[in-house]
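Hi R.,

Here's the chain you asked about this morning:
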Amino acid sequence: MKNLGQLMKQAQEMQGKVQEMQERLSALEVTGRSGGGMIEVVLTGKGEARKVTIDRALIDPAETEVLEDLLVAAINDARAKADARSAEEMQSLTGGLSLPPGFKLPF
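And the predicted structure, written out as tokens:
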């Protein structure tokens, strides 16, 4: 029973750490860029969009397809940065413990 109590205590500590990590990721902002910085997208660490900046030189009704492609590229860049920071946070949280592929916290 003593081991069960310790296990429960460790689970509660981990839950608290996961919650703290989620709060840090919510406050984190990453910027994705495309088109040589002509498009910038700011996302939170959880992937919520905060801001989009488009260089006025890109705004041409005849070239909307280019603008659309650059916007998607900037969003994907920001998302990749947010995912990388999330993975770093998780790595520090788990103390380098490798989790099986596809296994993510929180559950």
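The mean pLDDT is 84.

Let me know if you need anything else.
M.
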